[in-house]
TrEMBL record:
Keywords noted in UniProt: NAD, Oxidoreductase, Tricarboxylic acid cycle
Example of a GO biological process term: tricarboxylic acid cycle
Family classification: Belongs to the LDH/MDH superfamily. MDH type 2 family.
Superkingdom as given in the UniProt entry: Bacteria
The name this protein goes by in its record: Malate dehydrogenase
Organism: Pseudaquabacterium pictum
Ligand binding (NAD(+)): G11, A12, A13, G14, Q15, I16, G17, N107, Q114, V131, G132, N133
Domain Lactate/malate dehydrogenase N-terminal as annotated: residue spans: 5-154
Length: 327
């Protein structure tokens, strides 16, 4: 049987954590033959640590055959020790009256500390996924704070946007969601993301031709996907958690186990692809094989798409500029 791998999860007592940990421990992320050791991080506050203990009691009570160990931590320097996978979910939410600059600064502090801790103690091959918002910028901060780790090991979660777009296209075309190939989402995990179905196919046929409605694309599809998080909050009273956890599972599973040529979306540091400045943590279409992702290159970008990409890039660069002095 396989040797256990170490999976660190931050914000482990939060609502995404509650929807995520049981699925990791059951083998849905890394395979039904891969034992895992969970290294769980929460803030050093009694209430959070108590809540974490409760979640761990429930994990125990599942008697998961693949759960080879479990640890509670309040310090990233111990939580990230030798970790092979790190899911950075915990972040500082925007409080009432909090300015954007304050939000960026509070998160910069968290992700600088966590990036340094990963740099110091994690496995040299650690795969990092940042879920906590602003996800792309937080991932950028963690990457910049970990100069001894490969930059490519730091990623941000765009998969929820990708999955939301798949489900809207399935509903529009009346086709099964699993039949949709080659969807791309570009840019920031925010309402400015650009979900792009120009290359998408269903059973070999062009989705763009099937829909053939640029007004629907610009005025219904993109706003629906972009504002989906707000629509969930309005309906449920709390933000999306199960779908976010599901997207995190999808992202890590595909990165680790591969996509068999299929396209998925990951936020990854640019090396200049599609004219995006180097190091910007940008949503790109990727394929994954042998534990590595590769950006799908050479796609034509038309005027409408370029405008959308410019807009989400400008937002990301604004965020990045807003934290530069803190790094
Ligand atoms: P919760 O507030 O339920 O849980 C967050 C948990 O993180 C709390 O238990 C908190 O104590 C902990 N935490 C905060 N700072 C920490 C730190 N420095 N170290 C360790 N733990 C820390 O939020 P939840 O609904 O679980 O959402 C978590 C994050 O995901 C938020 O930032 C949210 O905005 C973000 N999201 C990102 C998505 C994406 O697609 N990238 C979608 C879903 C979600 O909105």
């Amino acid at each position: 049987s396989k040797k256990p791998v170490r999976v660190a999860v931050t914000g482990a007592a939060g609502q995404i954590g509650y929807a995520l940990l049981f699925r990791i421990a059951s083998g849905e992320m890394l395979g039904k033959d891969q034992p895992v050791i969970l290294q769980l991080l929460e803030v050093p506050v009694e209430k959070a640590q108590e809540a974490l203990k409760g979640v761990m009691m429930e994990l125990d009570d599942c008697a998961f055959p693949l759960l080879a160990g479990m640890e509670a931590h309040s310090d990233p320097m111990t939580a990230f020790k030798d970790t092979d996978y790190a899911l950075l979910v915990g972040a500082r939410p925007r409080g009432p009256g909090m300015e954007r600059a304050d939000l960026l600064a509070a998160n910069a502090q968290i992700f600088t500390a966590q990036g340094k801790a990963l740099n110091a103690v994690a496995s040299r091959n650690v795969k990092v996924l940042v879920v906590g918002n602003p996800a792309n910028t937080n991932a950028y901060i963690a990457m910049k704070s970990a100069p001894d780790l490969p930059a490519k090991n730091f990623t941000a979660m765009l998969r929820l946007d990708h999955n939301r777009a798949l489900s809207q296209i399935a509903a529009k075309t009346g086709k099964p969601v699993a039949s949709i190939q080659k969807l791309a989402v570009w840019g920031n995990h925010s309402p400015t993301m650009y979900a792009d179905y120009r290359f998408a196919t269903i059973d070999g046929a062009s989705v763009k031709d099937m829909i053939n409605d640029q007004v629907w694309n610009a005025e219904t599809f993109l706003p629906t996907v972009g504002k989906r998080g707000a629509a969930i909050i309005a309906a449920r009273g709390v933000s999306s958690a199960a779908s976010a956890a599901n997207a995190a599972i999808d992202h890590m599973r595909d990165w680790a186990l591969g996509t068999n040529g299929g396209w998925v979306t990951m936020g990854v540091p640019s090396k200049g692809e599609y004219g995006i400045p180097k190091e910007v943590m940008f949503g790109y279409p990727v394929t994954c094989a042998n534990g590595e992702y590769s950006i799908v290159e050479g796609l034509p970008i038309d005027a409408f798409s370029q405008e959308c990409i410019n807009k989400t890039l400008a937002e990301l660069q604004g965020e990045q500029d807003g934290v530069k002095h803190l790094l």
